[in-house]
Amino acid sequence: MYRILLITLAVACLATAPRFAAAQAGGFPVQTTARTQFVFKDGEVMRREGSQLTPLTQNVKLSSGVKINYKNGIVEMPADKFNPQGKKLTLREGDYVRADGGVVFATPGSAAAARGQAPNGPSGKYSTYVQRGPGYADPAVRASLLTKKVELLTQKVNLLSQGRTDLPNTKEIDDQLAQLETQLTTTPQ
Fold first, then answer.
1. Could you please report the per-residue DSSP string of 104-173?
2. How far apart are CA 135 and CA 133, in angstroms?
3. Distance between CA atoms of residues 116 and 124, nearest Å
4. Where does the record place the DUF6799 domain (predicted)?
């Protein structure tokens, strides 16, 4: 009797082993809509339909082949022409996976981590972007220069469209446009 019970238990364990392996290997297929998102919130992956959040209870596999681990937020991308071996990345707070398998990062730090880069150097902090060098001007100054350029181009078009048989002399307007273009490209901040 003990022997039959032991054999039955062993068979039952073997019968359920592939199912557990499937869950660890990537999860089970899920039905999604265009609004379905799998968001990493409070240390776990949750399914979001509109504004409703539902905690996941098992790993999932999307129709695109993307696998999502519900406990730790590891996302496995299938192999493609850019990543022939596939790609793994870990979601951070606020990141989510769309129903089509695309990942949307909540912060620049999340995106940098997914690329395997430290965000903005070893400090891990981003500085405010400031454009410097050629081509930068205060927006108000740049707007006035562009307005002047439009006026000069309008004058040139009017001069050229008068219907005269000889070509009018536009050298003065061309020189002013060249000076204006130089100002637009070299105005310091």
1. E-SSHHHHHHHTT--TTSTT--PPPP---STT---HHHHHHHHHHHHHHHHHHHHHHTS--SSPP--HHH
2. 6
3. 13
4. 38-102
User: Residue 94: left if φ>0, alpha if ψ -120 to 50, beta else—which one?
Assistant: left
12 or 153, greater pLDDT = 153
Average pLDDT, integer, range 118-129: 55
pLDDT surpassing 60 at residue 137: no
pLDDT at position 48: 92
User: Alpha-carbon distance 118 to 114, whole Å?
Assistant: 10
Phi-psi region of 124 (alpha: psi -120 to 50; beta: other; left: phi over 0): left
Q: What is the pTM of this model?
A: 0.50
